[in-house]
């Protein structure tokens, strides 16, 4: 697995803080995570992820961070944006997800993908200097961290002034119909399909995590509270997904 060698002038050592159960869950689903995403979203997740990356404004030569990178989808899209002269760091607390991301990097063998490095780390204590990144993404991660306010503070801290973070996740809708459709899909599509992989219990967690998540307005408020100058939440995928775009 590609590793990132810390430099004392750039990185600061941290311990990864999370519940053991949550980390174990993501390690268990890692081997089939990509296949399930394609199957359950009919491939639409790739469109949503491209939208999220575009909203960051990442450009050639930029230094960018993908928090809770998982198997690397957003990291690879960022790599295309910043090119060979840019730098991408994919950070996650799951070693198994990072191992898969690294394997995908080697299999894809695209020249610019050599600019990606993978790092096991904590979204609540990012091991980087203040104002280090030109753009940041976070895909399906904020909903799962144990302290959302702290995670947003850390993203704000390591992002450069006038730069943007794009946070993609399920949308907790205020519309009862949309919420009902989401829960129906989880109960009648997501969990049954996941059960075919022996992961029904892991995906039952999804419904409760969405219920406990923040609405779009609450996410905008959170971003402004930690210091972002502008924050807008966009509903996508028919209101099933959402993307918070915040500028430092």
Q: Determine the N-to-C terminus distance.
A: 33 Å
Shape: globular
Low-confidence stretches: 1-17
Portion in strands:
15-25%
Helical coverage, percent range = 40-55%
Main sheet strand line-up: 3-2-1-4-5-7-6
> Could you report the average pLDDT, rounded to the nearest whole number?
87
How many beta-strand elements? 7
Tell me the number of helical segments per DSSP (H or I, 4 or more residues long): 9
Q: What structural category characterises the helix and strand content?
A: alpha/beta
Element-by-element helix/strand order: HHHEHEHEEHEHHHEE
**Cα-atom Rg, whole angstroms?**
17 Å
Query: Major β-sheet, in short?
Result: 7 strands, mixed
Task: Offer a quick outline of the entry.
By secondary structure, the protein is of the alpha/beta class. The protein is built from nine helices and seven strands.
What do these coordinates show?
This protein is α/β, with parallel strands linked by helices and 248 residues long. 44% of the residues lie in helices and 20% in strands. The chain is built from 9 helices and 7 strands; from the N terminus they run αααβαβαββαβαααββ. The chain has helices at 20-29, 33-41, 44-56, 73-82, 95-108, 148-158, 176-195, 200-211, 216-225, and strands at 63-67, 87-92, 116-120, 133-139, 159-170, 230-236, 241-247. The protein has a 7-stranded mixed beta sheet with strand order 3-2-1-4-5-7-6, with helices on both faces. The longest helix has 20 residues, at 176-195.
